[in-house]
Specification:
Layout: E1 25-30, E2 35-40, E3 49-54, E4 57-61, H1 71-86, H2 90-102, H3 112-121, H4 125-138, H5 144-156, H6 160-169, H7 175-187, H8 191-204, H9 212-224, H10 228-240, H11 247-259, H12 263-272, H13 283-295, H14 299-311, H15 318-331, H16 334-347, H17 352-364, H18 368-377, H19 383-395, H20 399-412, H21 418-431, H22 434-447, H23 453-465, H24 469-477, H25 484-496, H26 500-512, H27 519-532, H28 535-548, H29 554-566, H30 570-578, H31 585-597, H32 601-613, H33 620-633, H34 636-648, H35 656-668, H36 672-680, H37 688-701, H38 704-717, H39 722-734, H40 738-750, E5 759-764, E6 767-772, H41 781-797
Antiparallel strand pairs: 1-2, 3-4, 5-6
């Protein structure tokens, strides 16, 4: 029995994220048991509609899509699918198709090319395989066009393996098939397979000339893995087939040569198309050339080419000025950067990429205030710009501003990404704000970023900077993947916290995991060797460096100079310094410190003069080294000369370190009152080190009265300072004031303070022997103490009178 039912209904338009333009039409639905005729009136802005198979069996559908059987109506549905796909509404396009087949309408081939694209846009391989199944079911998979679309869909879904499997089963392959595979491998980062597929294509198609798409993907792969030989072969293939003047392929060739570091060949390609009116005036080609110069650090050539581009009347675009701003950042040339800024305003190149690059340029060129202003004035805020401004603030001495910006970001957005977490963790590390950093750590755990290798490395660095190596190790060992940055953060943390043995053990473990160290790693390891003062370790590290880094590196060489000096080998320090092809301020400071440490004061002064002749400006570290050497050598006049030169000749305001050196110099020479007066004129707040230096001088010269005044200043700053209390007690003991000795030591006991016992070590025949005060654990302790007793007797025979401690030392326990 045939049942006919007429019904007027409306179709929801907003569910498809756009308004629909629909017209009334009739739909005929047939099935084996009955026929239902529905007359429909379709209107916009509805919320639901009803469709009935018969008057007695009704079903309600919300946000549905209606399709028709007639040829005209199938075309309308196909147009809807195509329109939604092109506009990026992939789910809506798929829903139209699924509703269509749900009512039993026959499927036609014309649906599938757009549908495959829509499924690829979802980047969901499981759903993509559903449309693959539909194609098999309806028998449309024999068409090479459909197969090529499926290949592209699998690559977009990240299912390269499925794409390869399907490609290998294809009996018919056209240029699009090969191009899809070559581009797919390239875009997924498998550049070797991309080139292999390109070679197969040329071979299997009998030398047929590939098209532009294949060439561009192959050239991009060559550049990415710096495979110059294959790149030159492709270049020859292009010349042979007369394609070497194609503007897109010219850009690809220049980019490939620049990435391979072959600037000469890139210039040759560029010069050959200069006279071509079409290609020679192509802005993209000029942009690629300028970017290549910048990437290869040929900054002056890049700037000259940009000026020539302007002279030829080629108008720059956003990629051009972004590259030029990167150039200014590398040159640290604020003047040129401001000129580029003016050009940007004149050309109205106002987008988020340009704004971010402009802001970074001001930060890198030493004008962070303007960089912050650029951020505040920007009309385009995205995660990249927020992350950039926070990172630049953290790295350029504005950590407090980075934390403030992070607070603003959280109020506006609520959820940071890993880049922003990295920036705020750097700020916390710089300020050693452990409580705030732990809050950020909690946020990272909450958002699931704590296992991220970059965030994890920043957390290890943060806890290391805050002195909590236990937690740093806990975070480090909790990382699923540990890269070079993570290992460097751990080793650096150990070195900074004077855990030299642990730093060396971590270095060995790192190599066990096949992680190759870099120069930063080696500088941290050398810092550990310096702390241990073990010569054999220093030489082992030096040999390792010679094997793996035959070329001189400034960071490692400077670390070697300091390490050898602290291990007692000033000759090796000087040799490393002399062999440096280029010496920066750190190199000169390192050798000055090494000479001063070994008492070669005159040589140090002469080296300082050579530093000035090399047109290198001394910094605060340089003068700290000079003043410290003057203090130990008792050269008061030379100390005053350098102290005044620092302010007059180099406009450097003295810091606490330089004032401490001057106080120590005057105190050692017996000018105690002058040293005290100098402290009282310090513009910054003097710390316990400044006062402690003067207290040691008071002890040396027996000035009890001034020592009491100085000690009060120290104990106000640090009441728990046991070392200075012991020093004061020893001063009272030397002066015979046993009552004050007893009072000070009673205070030490009452406050529960304990002095760390003295420790020393010596290297004999590549073995380290450690000695602690009052220790008898060494296996040769009887012989050692017998030798000390014998030396003491010899000293007494020549007139030495030892000072015997008369008071109890139990507070040292």
């Amino acid at each position: 029995m045939e049942i006919v039912w007429s019904h007027s209904f409306q179709l929801n338009g907003h569910c498809m994220n756009k308004k629909l333009e629909l017209v009334p039409y009739e739909v005929t639905v047939r099935n084996p048991k009955k026929t239902t005729l529905v007359s429909c009136s379709l209107q916009n802005n509805a919320t639901s509609f009803q469709l009935a198979k018969n008057p007695f069996e009704k079903s309600s559908y919300t946000h549905g899509f209606l399709t028709t059987k007639s040829v005209m109506d199938v075309s309308k549905v196909n147009s809807m699918v195509k329109e939604y796909t092109e506009d990026g509404f992939f789910e809506d396009a798929i829903r139209v198709y699924l509703d269509f087949i749900e009512y039993g309408f026959p499927v036609e081939f014309r649906f599938f090319p757009c549908l495959i694209k829509a499924y690829g846009g979802l980047c969901d391989v499981s759903k993509g395989k559903q449309i693959h199944g539909h194609l098999l079911k309806f028998g449309f998979l024999e068409d090479v066009y459909v197969k090529n679309s499926l290949l592209g869909m699998y690559w977009k879904c990240g299912a390269g393996g499925d794409a390869v499997e399907m490609f290998e089963r294809m009996q018919e392959r056209d240029l699009v098939s090969w191009n899809t595979m070559i581009s797919g491998f390239c875009q997924s980062g498998d550049y070797v397979k991309s080139l292999t597929m390109f070679g197969r294509m040329v071979k299997e198609r009998g030398g047929e000339c590939p098209n532009r798409v294949a060439y561009l993907a192959a050239l991009s792969s060559c550049g990415s893995i710096q495979c110059l030989t294959h790149g030159e072969e492709i270049h020859g293939f292009l010349v042979k087939n007369g394609l070497h003047s194609d503007e897109f392929l010219v850009s690809g060739l220049i980019e490939m040569y620049m990435k391979c570091g072959d600037i000469k060949n890139a210039e040759n390609v560029f010069e050959r198309i200069r006279d071509n009116d079409l290609v020679g005036r192509n802005r993209v080609v000029w942009n690629v050339m300028i970017l290549g110069y910048v990437s290869n650090e040929c900054l002056s050539l890049a700037l000259d080419l940009f000026v020539e581009m302007l002279e030829l009347g080629i108008t720059p675009d956003s990629p051009t000025v972004v590259t030029l701003l990167v150039l200014c950042s590398q040159l640290l040339d604020l003047a040129v950067g401001k000129q580029i800024h003016g050009l940007i305003l004149g050309l109205s190149l106002d987008d988020v990429r340009v704004g971010t690059a402009l802001m970074q340029m001001y930060f890198k060129c030493g004008d962070p205030e303007t960089g912050l202003q650029m951020f505040r004035r920007s009309q385009y805020y995205n995660l990249v710009m927020w992350g950039s401004v926070m990172s630049n603030c953290a790295q350029n001495g504005y950590p407090n501003e980075a934390l403030q910006l992070f607070g603003e970001f959280m109020l506006d957005y609520g959820f940071p990404d890993p880049v922003i977490l990295l920036a705020v963790l750097r700020a916390c590390s710089f300020l050693t704000l452990k409580p705030r950093g732990m809050e950020i750590h909690g946020l990272a755990i909450k958002m699931g970023f704590d296992s991220d290798v970059f965030v994890g490395g920043a957390l290890v660095d943060f806890y290391g900077k805050c002195g909590d190596m236990k937690y740093a190790q806990q975070v480090f060992h909790g990382l699923s993947t540990r890269d070079l940055v993570s290992w460097n953060a751990l080793i650096s943390g150990f070195a900074q916290n004077k855990c030299a043995d642990e730093a060396l053990m971590a270095f060995r473990d790192m190599q066990t995991e096949q992680i190759k160290p870099n120069t930063v790693t080696m500088a941290c390891v050398l810092s550990g060797c310096s702390h241990l003062s073990v010569m054999i370790l220093c030489k082992e590290v030096h040999c390792y460096l010679l094997r793996h880094w035959p070329e001189t590196n400034a960071l490692v060489s400077n670390s070697l100079i300091s390490a050898y000096a602290k291990c007692g080998d000033i000759h090796s320090s000087w040799t490393v310094f002399e062999k440096l092809p280029v010496r920066d301020e750190v190199s000169w400071n390192s050798i000055l410190l090494a000479l001063g440490m070994h008492g070669h004061t005159n040589e140090m002064f002469a080296t300082f003069e050579k530093m000035k002749e090399a047109n290198l400006k001394p910094d605060h570290g340089t003068f700290t080294t000079l003043l410290s050497a003057c203090s130990h050598a008792g050269k008061v006049d030379a100390g005053w000369k350098y102290f005044n030169s620092m302010m007059v000749d180099y406009t450097l305001e003295p810091r606490v370190e330089q004032y401490t050196c001057m106080v120590d110099l005057l105190g050692r020479a017996g000018y105690l009152n002058l040293a005290y007066d100098l402290i009282m004129t310090v513009p910054c707040s003097p710390d316990d080190r400044v006062w402690g230096s003067l207290l040691a001088s008071c002890k040396h010269h027996g000035d009890t009265k001034l020592a009491e005044v100085v000690a009060n200043h120290i104990f106000d700053l640090d009441p728990s300072s046991v070392g200075y209390r012991v020093l004061l007690a020893n001063l009272y003991e030397d002066s015979g004031n046993l009552k004050e000795v007893s009072r000070v030591r009673t205070e030490i006991k009452y406050m529960g303070l304990k002095k760390q016992p003295g420790c020393s070590w010596i290297e004999v025949d590549n073995s380290i022997h450690i000695f602690v005060a009052g220790d008898h654990s060494h296996d040769q302790s009887e012989d050692i103490y017998a030798t000390i007793e014998g030396l003491s007797l010899e000293m007494k025979r020549v007139g030495y009178i030892p000072q015997i401690q008369t008071a109890s030392n139990d507070y040292w326990a």
